[in-house]
Structure prediction request, 451 residues.
Amino acid sequence: MKKLKGYYDRPLSAIDWSLFAFFGILCYFSFNQGLDLVHTGISSFAYLRGHFLDFYEYNKVIVGGNNYLPSTYIIYAIWNLPIHLLGLLNETNSKDSLLALYWFKLLPTLVYMASGYLVYRISLIFGLKHGIAKIAGFAFLTMPIGFFSQFIFGQYDIFTVFFMLLGLLFYYKKNILLFTVFMGIAVTFKYFPVLIFIPLLMLVEKDVFKIIKYSLILMLPLLLEVLIYLPSDAFRYGVFEFEANSYMFYATINLSSISLRIVIVLWILLAAYAYFTELKDDFSVIKWSIFFANIVTFLSFGLSMWHPQWLLFAVPFWVLGTMLSKKFDIFMVIEFMIMVFFILFTVNFFTNNVDQNMLNYGIFRDLIDGDINLKLTMANFFVFSKPDIIYSVFSSLLLVYVLFKHPKYQIEKAEDFELGTQGLLFMRMRFILGIGFFILPAFIILLLNLK
Prediction:
């Protein structure tokens, strides 16, 4: 018992990393959402076969088309180069191969770990003590929603997060040009960073012409990729007609003949508020920028429809905001509650997709007797099946979570941050219980469906 109490009293230990590794390995090999990851990995082989300018036209025939800008496929082409040269994997033998799936999943997993290191580095720039900065990195890696996105859902949204974090690193080093460049690269993977970039830029830059200049620089990488492939019909249809791009603007107020897009109105208001906010010291910039970024995450995921993996975009801002809070332990409790309602909504809204169905794409797939979705589902397991109510609670919790990261509720100086035994305990429990809330029902259903 004394040893267990000692574990709770210590900051980070080998036990923490062992638990993270255990759950990471278990989920890495057990779950994956469909074959989108494999589709992207296979698509990248077109570049390795020399299809540079006709990439989208070629893949329309091979894989049915592509929905993203070239950056994602280029990174995977570089990653796949060794196995391509060795002849281990190709477009044909990768389609139903667990080896291919795990190879494609390994790249974003490594980037996920690197992103945790960047959170640690940014925390040091904030002025947090070395040990506390390590906890910030660990809190990022173990935040249940982020962990779910990377190890269970298994996608590559972490590419966007990684370049956003690189941008943030230079933002807090007061290098606005490199902040802009890396945020611009992040935009070529997913468009979310634009919503973060503008308020953060306007918080520290009041010269209108410089704001325009940096905004143009931000868009250069995206414009370059678009211009190269704009003549391609397959590119225009796959990228510009991708329905998921419009999810963020579904929340509306219906007027007599038009609809008012709520997220757009509130985001413009937020950007204007950032511009008119005058700050006197560097730590105030840190606190307000993280607060504004947290508000953007609510607009994006509390007032908008989303795919489950997208919430990974918000995780670094949530964690960094918590590391500046006077109530670390309370935010750990809220994170667990958010995870609970995130899972409840996901398994009820994405039924037979983002639930027990993800076991069909893991190491246990050959042990499943028939269709795992025909018997007990996770939506049935949790009983409560009102997506509207569940989403409303999720959104409310998220609003509380970001609003109370206002600078008024944050520490005055970095050295003021304190992390007691209760905070450490809650951080560990929110990870174990949060992930367990998904994987325990999933494995119970697996046991009921074994051959």
Q: What stands out?
A: Residues 98-126 form the longest helix (29 residues).
